[in-house]
Design brief:
With 260 residues, the protein is α/β, with parallel strands linked by helices. The protein has helices spanning 3-8, 31-36, 50-55, 76-85, 101-110, 127-137, 154-164, 202-214; strands spanning 10-14, 17-20, 23-27, 43-46, 66-70, 89-94, 116-120, 143-148, 168-177, 219-224, 228-233. The chain has 8 helices and 11 strands. The strands form 2 sheets. Strands 7-6-5-8-9-11-10 form a 7-stranded mixed beta sheet, with helices on both faces. The protein has a 4-stranded mixed beta sheet with strand order 1-2-3-4.
């Protein structure tokens, strides 16, 4: 099944409502709207816009058998990934300790407990806990697709990349969502903007670009899109040693100084 055949299974009711195989997805991008809205087992909140969904159709489902998603929120992205790719294993991780009722009901109703593994109460920046989950639930260097839609904070997202990226197979894709929040117009530019006291997530994007220039054997390509960054895994094995992004790219010995 290629992207064109996948596209025929997506029924867009409008730019903000999608139906796939009998499950509705309500696309919301305003943080307040996303937090107010709730998911049900047949209607999920999805924190993406239409372009972010259709971009996923570039991936061949035949090559996406193992998925890791950081950030469960209200379950919409987990269910959408399952609907699009029918993976053999989908490990999803969230910082909040409480299970998402709509997702839990969906897993039981669809008989997907052997496929989708929700791991609640785990920080994406916890090297030990996240590493243990990966060791237990996904094959070594066998992740086909990883999606970081978790904290959107630079230090935490960088640690998560260092943990998960070495476990991608050659040719696998690591997606960093909503990387550009420090550069969005409107309220995001005000003194009291959301995440106003946090270093820009775009710092990580700059480091990933430097890694691609320094080590194309590790990162063969970085696609920077308005809402997502796609990092393409190169052929070189990283191994089981701790991966440190800051000491892997080359910068003539000059330290990287994050913004702001």
């Amino acid at each position: 099944m290629n992207g064109d055949r996948l596209r025929t299974r997506l029924h867009w009711l409008d730019d903000f409502t999608l139906e796939v195989d009998g499950v509705e997805f309500r696309l919301l991008t305003d943080p307040a709207d996303m937090h107010r809205a709730g998911s049900t087992p047949d209607s999920f909140v999805l924190g993406k816009n239409r372009t972010m969904v259709t971009d996923l159709l570039e991936l061949d489902p035949e090559t996406v058998a193992t998925i890791v998603e950081l950030g469960i929120f209200k379950g919409g992205s987990v269910v959408l990934l399952e609907k699009l790719f029918h993976p053999r294993r989908l490990l999803c991780v969230d910082l909040l300790p409480d299970p998402v009722p709509a997702l839990e009901h969906y897993l039981d109703d669809q008989g997907l407990r052997d496929v989708i593994v929700p791991a609640y109460g785990t920080s994406q920046a916890d090297r030990v806990a996240l590493g243990a989950l990966l060791d237990e639930h996904v094959p070594a260097a066998g992740i086909d697709l990883a999606v970081d839609d978790a904290s959107h904070f630079y230090p935490e997202s960088k640690v998560a990349f260092e943990i998960v990226f070495p476990r991608l197979r050659p040719g696998g894709i690591y997606i960093l969502e909503d990387w550009g929040w420090a550069h969005w117009p409107g309220a995001w530019q005000e003194d009291d903007s959301p995440f106003g006291d946090r270093p820009f997530l775009s710092n990580l994007v700059f480091e990933l670009v430097m890694l691609a220039a320094s080590r194309p054997d590790l990162v063969s390509r970085v696609d920077v899109r308005p809402d997502m960054v796609w990092v393409h895994r190169g052929p070189e094995t990283i191994g089981n040693t701790r991966f440190d992004l800051s000491t892997t790219y080359l910068s003539r010995g000059a330290p990287f100084l994050p913004m702001p």
